């Protein structure tokens, strides 16, 4: 799967979260350009040096538009980003802002 991502900019929602930080480590290899999206968290996992990352809440439409610009793939690795919202809703919201990703 990682080989399918060569020469692609891969956006990772939740790059500073528990699961996302592990996915980020797997993406950190030649030919793959990971771009992390970190949420406002009290206890974020550190994003490694050399990784481009942005901090943005998934309800911030303008912040998401800016982050999605130029990405080829989006990986959503945040579960329960809001107690009242489901994972699928967050992903649909992010992808609706960038029609070429769907």
Blueprint of the fold:
Blueprint: E1 8-13, H1 18-27, E2 32-38, E3 52-55, H2 61-68, E4 73-76, H3 87-96
Parallel strand pairs: 1-2, 1-4, 2-3
What does this structure look like?
This protein has a four-stranded parallel beta sheet, with helices on both faces. The protein has 102 residues and is an alpha/beta fold. The model has no long low-confidence stretch (mean pLDDT 80). Helix content is 27%, strand content 21%. The chain starts with 7 loop residues before the first strand and ends in a 6-residue tail after the last helix. It has a single domain, classed as NAD(P)-binding Rossmann-like Domain (Rossmann fold, 3-Layer(aba) Sandwich).
Essential attributes:
alpha/beta; single chain; 3 helices; Rossmann fold; four-stranded parallel β-sheet; 102 residues
Main sheet: strand order:
3-2-1-4
CATH superfamily: NAD(P)-binding Rossmann-like Domain
CATH topology grouping: Rossmann fold
The shape, in one word, is globular
Rg estimate, integer Å: 13 Å
Counting helices, strands and paired strands, the structural category is alpha/beta
How many individual helices? 3
The unreliable regions are: none
Distance between the termini: 19 Å
**What is the domain total for the residues?**
1
What is the makeup of the main sheet?
Answer: 4 strands, parallel
* Secondary-structure arrangement, i.e. CATH architecture: 3-Layer(aba) Sandwich
The ordered H/E elements are EHEEHEH
Mean pLDDT metric? 80
């Amino acid at each position: 799967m990682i080989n399918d991502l060569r020469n692609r900019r891969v956006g990772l929602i939740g790059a500073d979260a528990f699961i996302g930080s592990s996915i980020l480590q797997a993406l950190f290899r030649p030919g793959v350009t990971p771009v992390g999206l970190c949420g406002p968290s009290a206890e974020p996992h550190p994003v490694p040096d050399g990784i481009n990352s942005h901090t943005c809440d998934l309800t911030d439409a303008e912040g998401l538009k800016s982050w999605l610009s130029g990405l080829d793939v989006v990986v959503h690795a945040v579960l329960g980003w809001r107690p009242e919202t489901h994972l699928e809703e967050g992903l649909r919201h992010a992808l609706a802002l960038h029609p070429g990703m769907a």
